[in-house]
Amino acid sequence: IGGISRVNTANVLAAAAAALGLGLPREAVVDGLRTFLASREQNPARMNIYRWRTQDGWATVVCDLAHNEAGVEAVLEVADGLRLPGSEVHITLGGLGDRTGEILEGMGAIAGRLADRTHLVTKDHYLRGREADEVFGHMRQGLASVGAVPAGTFPDEVSAMRGLLPTLRDGDVLAFTVHDMRQQVWDTLDEMSAEPITPRQLSSLLRRARGQHELDGAFEEAAAQEPAQRAATLEALTAEHAGDPRVHFELARALDAAGRTDDAIGEHERALDLGLREPHRFVSLMERALAARDAGQHERARTWAQELSERYEDSTAAAALAVLSGADAGQAEEAAVRAARWMVGRSTTPRDWEFSERLTGTATD
User: Fold this and answer.
1) Tens-digit pLDDT profile for the chain (365 aa)?
2) At 265, is the secondary structure helix, strand, or coil?
3) Is 335 exposed, middle or buried (0-12, 13-18, 19+ CB in 10 A)?
4) I need a surface site. Which of 3, 46, 136, 362 has the fewest CB within 10 A?
5) Which UniProt keywords apply (predicted)?
6) Is residue 147 left, alpha or beta, with left meaning phi > 0 and alpha meaning psi from -120 to 50?
7) Ranges of CATH 1.25.40.10 domains, the chain
C-alpha cells in the first residue's frame, strides 16, 4: 500500500525471505508480490480499500479485522496515510467480548489518539457471553483516557456502514472493522456503489495525500511561461488528462492570467464539479468569484462570494470578497451589515467584547 503500512511491509519482507530461502525462483516471488492485491477476493477483511463518491469528491473506506490493539493501530496508520490534507479519519470499534478489559480500553485509547471520530458498533456474534454495554464501557474508558468520546453508536455493522458512508466528505477515510457480518458488509458496499480501489487510483491517492501530483513538474514549467503560452500548455495537458480536477484548475488560473475571463470561469466550474479538493478548492472558489467580479457579472460574483464566506467563515479574504461583491451588486447596506457582524464576531481584543452585542444589534437593525 505504497509503503504506508509498516505491518504489511514487514510481512512482505518475511514472506519473500522465506520463499527465497525455500528455493522458489526469484521471478515467481516478484510476480507474486506484483499480482497480489489487498482485495476481498484474495485477502478478505485485510486492508480491503474502497472509494466512495461524496458530494464534493471521494472518500476512502478501509475494511479490516483490527481485532486487537496492534490491529487498530495498524489500520489507523494506513487510514492516516490515505487521508487528504484537512480531512478526517473515522473508525468503528465493537464486539470482541473475549478480550480483557485492559485490551478493550487500550483499543479505545489508540482510536481516540489516532482517529478524529470513533463510532461504537455492536457485534453480537463476537460478544461471546458479555453484554455490549460492558464492552462499550471499557472502550469509552479508553477513549476518555485520551480526552475523546464516541461520535455515535450503531446496532450492527451493516447499519454502521449505511449510516457512516453518507457522512463522509472528500478526502475522509473510514477505517471499518468488519467481523460478524462480513458478507453483508460487502453486499452493502456494492449496493451503495462503493468501488474497490485500483492500483492506479491508490497510487494517485497516495500522492495527493502527500500533497503531490504526478504533473507537478509540468505545472511548474508552465507557470514560468508567458500568459498566452502558459494557457496553451495547460490546454494541451487538459486534453491529455481530461477529468483530472487539478489539471482543469491549473488551466483556469492560466486562462485568467491570459485575460480569458469567461473561459477561466468555465474551467473553475469543471474543476469544482470534478471534485477539486483543498487547498486548491478554496483558491478555485475565490478566483471564480473574482473573475466574475472582474467581468462585471456582479450578481453572479455576489452569490458565489456569499456562499464562499459561509463555507469558509474564518477566511478574511472570503469575507472581504463577499462585502465588496455585495456593494458592487447594489447591496451596500447589506454588505456593511455583513462586514460588521464578521469583524465583531471575530475580534480577539478583550476591550471590544463588551460592545459585541450592541454593535451586532445595531448592525442587525
Assistant:
1) 778 888 889 999 999 999 999 999 999 999 999 888 888 888 888 999 999 999 878 999 999 999 899 999 999 999 999 999 879 999 999 877 788 889 999 999 999 999 999 999 998 877 887 888 888 899 999 999 999 999 999 999 999 999 999 999 989 999 999 988 999 999 999 999 999 999 889 988 998 888 788 899 999 999 999 999 999 999 999 999 988 999 999 999 999 999 999 999 999 999 999 888 778 889 999 999 999 999 999 999 999 999 998 888 878 899 899 999 999 999 888 888 878 878 877 777 777 777 877 776 654 44
2) helix
3) buried
4) 3
5) Ligase
6) left
7) 213-360
Instruction: List, as one string, the DSSP characters of 43-68.
Output: STTSSEEEEEEETTEEEEEEEE---S
Sheet holding 48-54, edge to edge: 152-154, 117-121, 89-93, 173-177, 57-64, 48-54, 195-196
DSSP helix/strand/coil, 184: helix
The structural architecture, per CATH, of the domain 37-209 is Alpha-Beta Complex (3.90)
Which residues share a beta bridge with 121? 154
Which residue carries 477476493 as its cell? Answer: 41
Q: How many CB atoms lie within 10 A of CB 41?
A: 8
Domain span(s) for CATH 3.90.190.20 in the chain? 37-209
**Rounded distance, CA 304 to CA 322, Å?**
8
Superfamily for the 213-360 domain: Tetratricopeptide repeat domain (1.25.40.10)
How does DSSP assign 227-258, residue by residue?
Answer: HHHHHHHHHHHHHHTTT-HHHHHHHHHHHHHT
